[in-house]
Design goal:
- By secondary structure, the chain is mainly alpha-helical.
- Helices cover about 45% and strands about 0% of the residues.
- The strands form two sheets. Strands 1-3 form a two-stranded antiparallel ribbon. The protein has a two-stranded antiparallel ribbon with strand order 2-4.
């Protein structure tokens, strides 16, 4: 893994992989940032900016890469060569792709910078401030690692020259341990405070992410345990304003120059496509648009993007009940029906299918197919579909890659970089 120090008090331009440190003499030193209360708070706020703003950010690269790989999006302008490679997939997606390289480098930088905050947390002396900054940094570390392992077969956990690569199970175990380490603070001492970005509700977010990553790891009982702790009426979001724009809206949807939704079928095969009366179609796609344009969370430069959706948590429970041993299919159907019959009044973001309850066969395979279908619709353009497609064993024709090739910047600097996946 490359070693990069960058002042995240003023997060801006990012960068090419290397093994050297680049210090900006006009910015605070690393020591100054990490040894003062104000420095740590600024660094924690910088994590959120790095994650969620600009075309370089994981917010843009994850939604975009996943969307093209899983047929959610259509390319508008072929001049966007990196997005074009992703839209074709297969061998056309090269190790030189700028978008996937940004996904790799940005997540590793965010992981590294988060760890520095965690390692220096005892600089904070007020318990609520300490707990909040620790939890904030832990959330971003977990998201960075958990995101990378959805797109790459293995990744390095250590920040060092010639870092070894770790397996998927090892990475997910580290993600979960990072989130679990926040639990002592969550009850009373991780409530946020003036000066720290406040749109992420820590307790809810930690439990939502734990349920997500336990599901990916295959620990269905733990996924259920943490999903049941999430308050579905509370929002956790990345917020935007006139200066820090929603990167999907700003770079693509409002310019109509990079990508838009592929169709009102969300790119799903006919057997899984939403029925025309599904209310989620008009939530995510502008009603009457032809060709389709995005609505939902992506049609305004200042629209907040959720960290997680209530529907994801409900569908995690449905899937966990269906997969656990022994499985609990009746309970799985109850959770699935909550999503199918949900009205706008019963969803904090107004996402609602407004459909009848599930009436198909009550067997594991049929329920899992319907759960997958609803994840693709309910969680459209959230960056989770590639992971879902593999986990549910969907046909390879429903995605154009299984895993991404490792960036040249990593391979040229780290001899431990694995062989690129075939597809």
């Amino acid at each position: 893994m490359k070693k990069i120090f960058i002042s995240i008090l003023v997060a801006s331009f990012l960068f090419t992989s290397c093994n050297e440190e680049f210090l900006d003499p006009t910015k605070p030193s690393e020591e100054g940032v990490l040894t003062s209360r104000d420095g740590l708070i600024g660094a924690a706020n910088g994590l959120q900016q790095l994650w969620s703003t600009s075309r370089l950010s994981p917010m843009y690269t994850v939604i975009t890469a996943n969307g093209f790989t899983t047929n959610e999006l259509r390319l508008i302008n072929a001049g966007n060569a990196d997005e074009g490679e992703l839209s074709i997939g297969g061998v056309s997606l090269t190790s030189k792709n700028g978008l996937t390289n940004n996904l790799w480098s940005q997540c590793l930088v965010i992981k590294s910078e988060s760890q520095k905050i965690i390692d220096n947390i005892n600089v904070m002396t007020v318990e609520n401030e300490k707990g909040s900054v620790f939890t904030h940094a832990s959330i971003f570390k977990a998201m960075a690692l958990g995101t990378l392992i959805q797109f790459y077969e293995s990744i390095p956990l250590k920040t060092m020259k010639n870092a070894p690569f770790n397996s998927r199970a090892e990475v997910l175990t580290e993600v979960i341990a990072t989130l679990k380490a926040t639990e002592p603070y969550l009850a009373t001492n991780a409530n946020g405070f003036t000066g720290l970005a406040s749109s992420i509700k820590y307790k809810n977010t930690v439990n939502a992410l734990l349920s997500r990553f336990y599901l990916m790891l295959g620990d269905y009982n733990k996924a259920l345990e943490h999903a049941n702790l999430v308050d579905l009426a509370s929002k956790s979001t990345f917020y935007y304003d006139a200066v820090s724009n929603n990167p999907i809206a700003f770079n693509s949807i409002l310019t109509n120059n990079v990508f838009q939704p592929i169709s009102r079928t969300f790119g799903l095969p006919s057997a899984l496509a939403p029925v025309p009366t599904d209310g989620r179609i008009d939530f995510y796609i502008t009603s009457g648009s032809n060709p389709t344009t995005a609505a939902g969370f992506y049609n305004s430069n200042t629209k907040a993007i959720p960290v997680f959706l209530p529907g994801e948590i409900i569908l995690i429970k449905a899937e966990a009940y269906a997969r656990k041993t022994p499985n609990m299919l009746a309970e799985s159907k109850i959770e699935l029906d909550k999503v199918l019959t949900k009205t706008t009044a019963n969803d904090v973001y107004g996402i609602a299918a407004n459909l009848p309850a599930y009436s198909g066969s009550l067997d594991q395979a049929s329920l899992l197919t319907e759960i997958y279908r609803n994840r693709c619709i309910e969680l459209y353009m959230t960056g989770l579909k590639l992971e879902d497609s593999r986990r549910f064993g969907r046909s390879a024709t429903e995605r154009n890659r299984n895993w991404y090739p490792y960036p040249d910047s990593e391979r040229f600097n780290n001899p431990n970089t694995p062989t690129d996946p075939v597809n």
